[in-house]
Design a protein that fits this description.
The chain is mainly beta. Helix content is 8%, strand content 24%. It is built from one helix and three strands. The chain has a three-stranded antiparallel sheet, with no helix packed on it. It starts with a strand and ends with a helix.
């Protein structure tokens, strides 16, 4: 018997039949948006330690 749970974003996660806390796969993956702040950008100096 396959067990599927859904997170708050509505993405289905498939879990182990013997351990429902173990996610074995999901239908979609969210990738975080990552940016870079380089010297010269406003506020850069406030974010780094000297």
């Amino acid at each position: 018997m396959s067990i599927t749970i859904t997170n708050t974003y509505g993405t289905a996660h498939h879990v182990s039949e013997t351990n429902p806390a173990h996610v074995t796969s999901c239908d979609r993956y969210r990738l975080p948006l990552v940016g870079a702040i380089v010297p010269g950008n406003p506020g850069y100096e406030d974010m780094v330690r000297s």
